[in-house]
Write a structure and sequence with these properties.
VWF_A; Copine_C; CPNE1 protein; two-stranded antiparallel sheet; Rossmann fold; six-stranded mixed sheet; calcium-dependent phospholipid binding; alpha/beta
Length: 282
C-alpha cells in the first residue's frame, strides 16, 4: 500500500489517499510506458456516492538502488583523511587563568583536549596511516604576530591523536589569543584537497573537526564555504565548548532545513554535524 499526502512544513500532512500495488508492477514503468493508479481516499469514498478518486498517480520509473554504508566504503578501500581545527580566539580567555577554556587543569586536560582526543581516537581508526594535521585559527603567531580573516596556521602536521595533544601543549604558551573566529579558511583548505581527490578519481573522503567556543562573525562567508564543500567528498564536525548558545552552529547543521548560501544556492547535501560539548562530555 502506498499512502499519498499533501506535505506541510509544520508536519501536519493531509491525507490525499492510498493505492495498492506491488514492486514488480511498479518496475514495469519505463520510458515507453507509464504505470497509473487511482489514488483513493477511504473516507471520501465511503461518504460520497459519486466519488471516483482523488487523482491519478503516474509512475514514470521505478528501480532499486543500493545505498552503501560508511563501513562499506572503508572496507572497499576508501581512504579517510581527518583534519582538526582549533579555536584560539581571545573569547576563550587567558589560558593561564582557570576560567579559560584553554586552561590545562592539574590533571592535564581541558575541554579542547578532551574533544580532540574523543573524536580523534575514533576517527583515526578509519584513517589509513592514523596520522592527521591540526590547524589553529584566531591567534597571533610568531614570528610575524599577525592574524587575518584569511589565515589559519599549522598546529601539527601528520600526527596521531596522541601526538596532536602534545603539539597543542607545546604551542599554547607560544601564541597570543586574538580574533576572529573564522571558519572559511580551514573549510576551504580541506576542500581544496577534497576537490583534487575528486578530480583525480581517487577513493578518498575528508573529515574536518572544528572545535570552537563561540558564535562565528562571518556567517555568510561560512555558509558559502559549506555550500561549496557540499559538492565534494567531505564532512564537517563542529564541537562547541563552553556555555555559548551556538544558535548559528545549529543553523549550519542543516537538520531542520536545507542550508543555503546568501545568494540562495542550496547545499548539495547536509555535510555539517554540530555537537555541544556540554551534552556529550560524559
Amino acid at each position: 500500500q502506498v499512502q499519498c499526502a499533501d506535505h506541510d512544513s509544520d508536519g501536519s500532512h493531509d491525507s490525499i489517499g492510498t493505492l495498492e500495488t506491488t514492486l514488480a508492477q511498479m518496475q514495469t514503468a519505463g520510458a515507453s510506458s507509464l504505470v497509473e493508479y487511482e489514488c483513493i481516499h477511504p473516507g471520501k469514498k465511503q461518504k460520497k456516492n459519486n466519488y471516483k478518486s482523488s487523482g491519478i498517480i503516474r509512475i514514470k520509473s521505478c528501480k532499486i538502488e543500493t545505498e552503501y554504508s560508511f563501513l562499506d566504503y572503508v572496507m572497499g578501500g576508501c581512504q579517510i583523511n581527518y583534519t582538526v581545527g582549533v579555536d584560539f580566539t581571545a573569547s576563550n580567555g587567558d589560558p593561564k587563568s582557570p576560567d579559560s577554556l584553554h586552561y590545562i587543569s592539574p590533571d592535564g586536560i581541558n575541554e579542547y583536549l578532551i574533544a580532540i582526543w574523543s573524536v580523534g581516537s575514533v576517527v583515526q581508526d578509519y584513517d589509513t596511516d592514523k596520522l592527521f594535521p591540526a590547524f589553529g585559527f584566531g591567534a597571533q603567531v610568531p614570528p610575524s604576530w599577525q592574524v587575518g580573516p584569511s589565515q589559519c596556521w599549522a598546529l601539527a602536521l601528520s600526527m596521531s591523536a596522541f601526538l596532536n595533544l602534545n603539539a597543542y601543549h607545546q604551542m599554547l604558551p607560544q601564541i597570543q589569543f586574538y580574533r576572529p573566529a573564522s571558519f572559511p579558511p580551514i573549510i576551504s583548505h580541506v576542500a581544496r584537497f577534497a576537490a583534487h581527490s575528486l578530480q583525480q578519481g581517487t577513493a578518498q573522503y575528508f573529515i574536518l573537526l572544528i572545535i570552537t567556543d563561540r558564535e562565528i562573525t562571518d556567517l555568510d562567508q561560512t555558509r558559502q564555504a559549506i555550500v561549496n564543500a557540499s559538492k565534494l567528498p567531505m564532512s564537517i564536525i563542529i564541537v562547541g565548548v563552553g556555555e555559548a548558545s551556538f544558535k548559528a552552529m545549529e543553523f549550519l547543521d542543516g537538520d531542520s532545513s536545507v542550508l543555503k548560501s546568501v545568494t540562495g544556492e542550496p547545499a548539495a547535501r547536509d555535510i555539517v554535524q554540530f555537537m555541544p560539548f556540554q551534552q556529550f562530555k560524559n
